[in-house]
């Protein structure tokens, strides 16, 4: 072969190899793993990812409901305390008002005649002074009672305003809790619909395909950096072969974020419940910096963290351990996931 033709052939081969590599990097339709095999397998993977999205939506709605219920309970407690304070203030106001009314009536009945009576009825100068002192005390007590009444009335007005504000907050919190509950119920219905579709697609797979899904494919050993990250990694790896269950957090069944949160809990590290929440923990790391124990996340391809639906734990060598979807076991798989990698977080270290 002439040198020119040989160079041309080599160039063509290089271009072909580059094209093949580029094709492997093109985003793959959403699924627990890159779609491979039959059309039925591809549909199953796609539905699994959609169901995972619905599961995340439900878990997020449940967290919002818990928060709304807590706010409602605190608002109701504040309302009860405000009503008690109002009752005490109103009771004090009533007590001092009665005292003032009594003194006022006494002053009206006596008026200036009380002083004349004191003079006319005195048997001696000392008796007169004693009587006048009593009248002065009566007047002082009246002023004191009036001052106390004014303070009690002010406290009652303040307490009434606080109670009204607390009731407004309690009513708003109760309404928000109801909206959160309605959303949870809607999310649960959506998830149940998605789960039925996943199960139908799973049943449509061939026996050999289902057997592969139900068999641990990677029993290798992987090590992370010493400390909590490796402890969590070994905990997750120890659960290879565990079944996937929607919303499960172990110790025998898991969903994706249930596995990562359970594994890190064994290492003494608390993680939030959902993959979207876990994406906010620790610090971000680039793909080139990944270490065993890091969490890797996947969304719907939009690059929007609010659309994250899957998380796995990096084990090294371009692989992760994860719980993909119903019908598959916890196992070590390619860290490409469904092709919609959005980022990674280092939880410790």
- Roughly what fraction of the amino acids lie in strands? 5-15%
Q: Report the mean per-residue pLDDT as an integer.
A: 81
Q: Which structural category do the helix and sheet elements fall into?
A: alpha+beta
Distance between the termini: 58 Å
CATH topology of the largest domain: Helix Hairpins
Tally of domains: 2
Poorly predicted regions are: 1-32
Largest sheet: 6 strands, antiparallel
Count of distinct strands: 8
Strand ordering within the main sheet: 3-8-4-5-6-7
What does this entry look like structurally?
It is built from seven helices and eight strands. The chain has two domains: 67-203, Helix Hairpins (Orthogonal Bundle); 222-349, endopeptidase fold (from Nostoc punctiforme) (Alpha-Beta Complex). Strand 5 (310-316) and strand 6 form a beta hairpin. The protein is elongated, with a radius of gyration of 38 Å. The chain is of the alpha+beta class and 349 residues long. The strands form two sheets. Strands 3-8-4-5-6-7 form a six-stranded antiparallel β-sheet. Strands 1-2 form a two-stranded parallel ribbon.
Describe the secondary structure blueprint for this structure.
Elements: H1 3-25, H2 39-120, H3 125-203, H4 207-213, H5 228-237, E1 243-244, E2 253-254, H6 256-266, H7 275-278, E3 283-285, E4 295-298, E5 310-316, E6 319-322, E7 331-334, E8 341-346
Parallel strand pairs: 1-2
Antiparallel strand pairs: 3-8, 4-5, 4-8, 5-6, 6-7
């Amino acid at each position: 072969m002439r040198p020119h033709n040989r160079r041309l052939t080599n160039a063509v081969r290089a271009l072909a190899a580059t094209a093949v590599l580029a094709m492997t990097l093109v985003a793959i339709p959403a699924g627990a793993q890159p779609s491979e095999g039959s059309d039925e397998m591809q549909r199953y993977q796609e539905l699994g990812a959609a169901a995972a999205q619905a599961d995340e939506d439900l878990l997020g709605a449940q967290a919002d409901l818990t928060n709304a219920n807590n706010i409602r309970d605190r608002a109701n407690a504040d309302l009860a305390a405000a009503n008690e304070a109002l009752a005490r203030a109103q009771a004090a106001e009533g007590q001092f008002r009665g005292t003032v009314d009594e003194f006022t009536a006494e002053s009206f009945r006596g008026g200036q005649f009380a002083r004349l009576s004191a003079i006319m009825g005195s048997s001696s100068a000392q008796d007169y002074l004693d009587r006048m002192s009593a009248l002065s005390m009566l007047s002082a007590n009246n002023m004191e009672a009036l001052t106390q009444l004014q303070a009690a009335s002010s406290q009652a007005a303040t307490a009434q305003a606080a109670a009204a504000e607390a009731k407004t907050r309690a009513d708003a919190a109760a309404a928000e809790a109801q909206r959160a509950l309605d959303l949870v119920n809607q999310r649960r219905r959506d998830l149940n619909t998605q789960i039925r579709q996943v199960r139908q697609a799973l049943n449509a797979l061939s026996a050999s395909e289902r057997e592969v899904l139900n068999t641990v494919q990677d029993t290798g050993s992987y090590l992370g950096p010493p400390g909590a990250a490796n402890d969590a990694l070994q905990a997750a790896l120890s659960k290879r072969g565990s079944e996937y269950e929607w919303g499960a957090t172990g110790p025998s069944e898991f969903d994706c974020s249930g596995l990562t949160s359970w594994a890190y809990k064994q290492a003494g590290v608390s993680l939030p419940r959902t993959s979207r929440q876990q994406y906010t923990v620790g610090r971000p790391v680039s793909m080139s910096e990944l270490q065993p124990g890091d969490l890797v996340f996947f969304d719907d391809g939009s690059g929007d963290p609010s659309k994250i639906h899957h998380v796995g734990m990096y084990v090294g060598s371009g692989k992760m351990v994860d719980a993909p979807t119903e019908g598959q076991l916890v196992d070590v798989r390619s860290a490409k996931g469904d092709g919609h990698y959005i980022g990674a977080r280092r939880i410790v270290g």
